[in-house]
Amino acid sequence: MSDAAQSDTRGARPRETDCLTCVKTHPFPDAITEETRITADALTHDTSPVAARRLTVMVVVPTLGAGAAERGAVDLAHVLIGAGHRVVVVSHGGRMEEDLADDGATFVRRNVHSKNPFTVLRNAGALTQLARKHRCDVIHAHGRAPAWSAYLAARVLRIPFVTSWYKGFREQNPLKRFYNRIMVRGQRVVAAGDQIAELINDRYGTAWDRIVTVPASVDVSDFDPDAVSAERLEAMRRAWGATAQTQVILVLGRMVRRKGHHLVVQSARRMKDMGIRNFLCILCTGEEGMSRYACEIWDLVVASDAADVCRIVNFPADKQAAFAAATIAVSAATQAEGTARAVLEAQAMALPLVVSDLATGPEVVLAPPAVPDDRMTGLRFSSGDERELSAAIVRLLSMSQAQRQAVGRRGRAWVSAQFTPSVVSDRLLRLYEEFSNARGG
């Protein structure tokens, strides 16, 4: 379908119930029921998640280390295998290989993370051979470089091609736009949240009936603030150098530029200028350790005279204790993101949140003025504006402990109602039911 033809579908989305209107007019936390959140394409199918025919699905993902695409690919394999399908995962590999092995997926190591055009073409041939060997019914790509190879293989084999989007890619020039465009070539395009779905439609005119919204999920039983002992909590705060009176701001997301850690440092400097002292910003590096950006952040901390209120640490192994030890959490993303898993985890741990308007959609963090103060689960600010970020942080820190706890409890209730693994797996299986039926189920 041409861009011109597809653009006619803009504004005509058979949408999910508008989240903001629904939150305003219905009692919390049932403001958005599961029925109203099902995307319109799912409404045309049987609501049963049981597929009619066993499929073999090839999942192609750059690496299996940290990141939303990697976690999403592993979760997809888990859901499909649990429903009786076979999954072949092709990737350069990483620490989550063990998760795939535990689920029983077939893993094939290949450097599909490479952006070299010649490597992409060689990978296309290799994926074609692999898909023939395993008699794959669908190829599902998570990431642009592997998507090019996967798309070519799917075309040769004449089988469905699916893509998953987890963030809004930058398009600073025509070449980058062309490169990114592969992600809308899928027969179905999976968006990790309403915000990403709208970006796909706005930017490319992709028809709404080709876009399937599947957010991230979190098992709230794994993120229970009441399960963290006082000893674990105090050990975490001591490791950070926080006293009993220190208000801890936990910055979410890997330390990459698009996560906006520099804005947090600038806001910390602004808060010091306002005379606020008894706070501590915790910025965590991921598996990559002290990356170039992390070093830039530390230089900014030093140059801003904020070393007394900012810490750069390795992300704690005890993630739940880190959330429990914090006062609030911040996601300052400067690029559009889907339903960030870290945001869901923080809310599940009953942490009040400050998020940028690109960090996650309004259906994830309920914030004024979209909802009244007594229903808020956090605050939102304009991406890139450290003044607004500072004001939002100060507002949450200025609340009484009881008020912040109430905000946190609402966040946990919201995640428990709307972002559970069962909700996500049902949506994925409905999508694959289409392919199952089309293949002769």
Outline:
This protein has helices spanning 3-7, 19-25, 34-37, 40-43, 68-82, 97-103, 117-134, 144-157, 174-180, 194-204, 230-240, 261-273, 292-303, 319-325, 341-348, 386-398, 401-418, 421-438, and strands spanning 56-60, 86-91, 106-109, 138-141, 161-165, 188-191, 211-213, 247-251, 279-285, 310-314, 328-331, 353-356, 378-381. With 441 residues, the chain is α/β, with parallel strands linked by helices.
- Name the CATH class of the largest domain: Alpha Beta
What summary fits the major beta sheet? Answer: 7 strands, parallel
Number of domains: 2
User: What is the helix fraction of residues, given as a range?
Assistant: 40-55%
| Poorly predicted runs of 5 or more residues | 1-11, 14-51
Q: How many whole angstroms does the radius of gyration measure? A: 22 Å
Q: Please state roughly what percent of the residues sit in beta strands, choosing from under 5%, 5-15%, 15-25%, 25-35%, 35-45% or over 45%.
A: 5-15%
Helix tally equals 18
- CATH superfamily (homologous) name of the largest domain: Glycogen Phosphorylase B
Task: Report the span from N to C terminus.
Answer: 27 Å
Instruction: Note the overall shape.
Output: globular
Structural class by helix and strand composition? alpha/beta
- Count of beta strands: 13
The average pLDDT score comes to: 85
Keywords:
6-stranded parallel beta sheet, alpha/beta, 7-stranded parallel beta sheet, 441 residues, 18 helices, Rossmann fold, single chain
